[in-house]
């Protein structure tokens, strides 16, 4: 996407140096720092520490990570058992987004099919770059399909702005281009529809106030950062027309894991008759499970992410302690919104209702393992 006149993606392969590069999202919006990933340990660290984050981007990083594994130690990558072990370590870097295992496994399989080392590296790179481009196209299509939902609301509002609420960052920074939840916003804005976005700050790491607000601002989209708890109040007062969020893993029955706090937004939306849509590429469906609350692993992160708040002060990024140092904190990173609270899914194949039958009608080729 366009950042101050320069086309940027959160991950890319630099052809000249044959290096995988990422934006270090921990530093945004205050510093735009690019990091090279040249070993599997670095790729795993970048995923765990959230230089890269967001389900489709984690998947793309996992895919390119298999290439990194293959080239980091010369032709050791010709050893099947070693390659599988390294890929297993990479697959486990974060537990909730299903895209990570999907991206790693897809590229690893292609690599294993080629036994000669050079062919293996070439096959892995080709497949990984394919994943990256496919996800960009998927997000573009999500934007095109999602536009119809925003347009319909805009027509009913007769020229009044459409107020959309979103949680966390499901923008291009979390994907490759366009984003998932933000793709319909970008498409609607580019089509001349007047939109305004309520941006949940998304504690503790503030993906909303740091990343979504930055993205929307760079695109010229009107937005307002709100506390994570403000959505219900705004909905009660008719100030939200539509909620669109992304997801890290969605079951074949339509249960949605997304950033902690999403479930409460869905409850408030249902109570106030506000449509609640989830935008996702097919790589985020976990076709093997139906019950999200029971079967989706929820990441628990370092409690210090809650206790210390990071911000920009006196020209540098620093963090400060908020609660008493001795108070324990619990950092559940995601929650599950049951399918019954979801109005529909916006996917690269179109829009469908949030039930197993509707989902499988759109994806008849996807079978449970
Ligand atoms: O912990 P994060 O920042 O990786 O969480 C990201 C989210 O929860 C996003 O909403 C989700 O991955 C969808 S991204 C298109």
TrEMBL record:
One of the Pfam families matching this protein, by short name: IF-2B
InterPro entries: IF-2B-related, IF-M1Pi, IF_2B-like_C, Initiation_fac_2B_a/b/d, M1Pi_N, NagB/RpiA_transferase-like
Biological pathway: Amino-acid biosynthesis; L-methionine biosynthesis via salvage pathway; L-methionine from S-methyl-5-thio-alpha-D-ribose 1-phosphate: step 1/6
Catalytic function, reaction form: 5-(methylsulfanyl)-alpha-D-ribose 1-phosphate = 5-(methylsulfanyl)-D-ribulose 1-phosphate
EC class of the enzyme, as a word: isomerase
Xref: NCBIfam families: eIF-2B_rel, PRK05720.1, salvage_mtnA
Name assigned to this protein: Methylthioribose-1-phosphate isomerase
Gene: mtnA
């Amino acid at each position: 996407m366009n950042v101050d006149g320069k086309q940027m993606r959160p991950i890319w392969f630099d052809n000249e140096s044959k290096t995988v590069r990422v934006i270090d999202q921990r530093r945004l919006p205050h510093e735009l720092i690019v990091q090279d990933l040249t070993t599997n340990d670095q790729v795993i660290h970048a995923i765990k520490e959230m230089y890269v984050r967001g389900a489709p981007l984690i998947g793309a990083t996992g895919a390119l990570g298999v290439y990194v594994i293959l080239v980091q130690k010369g032709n050791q990558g010709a050893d099947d058992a070693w390659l599988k072990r390294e890929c297993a370590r990479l697959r486990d870097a974060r537990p909730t987004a299903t895209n990570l295992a999907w991206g790693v496994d897809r590229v690893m399989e292609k690599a294993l099919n080629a036994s000669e080392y050079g062919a293996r590296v070439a096959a892995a790179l080709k497949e990984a770059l394919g994943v990256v481009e496919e996800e960009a196209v998927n997000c573009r299509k999500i934007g095109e399909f999602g536009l119809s939902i925003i347009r319909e609301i805009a027509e009913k509002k007769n020229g009044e702005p459409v107020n959309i609420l979103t949680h966390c960052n499901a923008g291009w920074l979390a994907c490759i281009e366009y984003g998932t939840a933000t793709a319909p916003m970008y498409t609607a804005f580019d089509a001349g529809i007047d939109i305004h976005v309520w941006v949940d700050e998304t504690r503790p790491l503030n993906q909303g106030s740091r990343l979504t607000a930055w993205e929307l601002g760079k695109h010229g989209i009107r937005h307002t950062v709100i506390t994570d708890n403000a959505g219900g109040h705004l909905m009660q007062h008719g100030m939200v027309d539509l909620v669109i969020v992304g997801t890290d893993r969605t079951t074949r029955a339509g249960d949605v894991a997304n950033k902690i706090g999403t479930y409460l937004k869905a409850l408030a939306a249902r109570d106030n008759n506000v449509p609640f849509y989830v935008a996702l590429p097919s790589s985020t469906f976990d076709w093997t499970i139906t019950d999200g609350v029971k079967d989706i692993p929820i990441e628990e992160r370092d409690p210090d992410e809650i206790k210390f708040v990071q911000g920009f002060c006196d020209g540098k990024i620093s963090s400060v302690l908020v609660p008493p140092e001795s108070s324990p904190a619990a950092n559940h990173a995601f929650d599950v919104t049951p399918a019954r609270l979801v109005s529909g899914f916006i996917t690269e194949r179109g829009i469908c209702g949030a039930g197993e039958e509707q989902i499988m009608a759109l994806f008849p080729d996807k079978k449970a393992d």
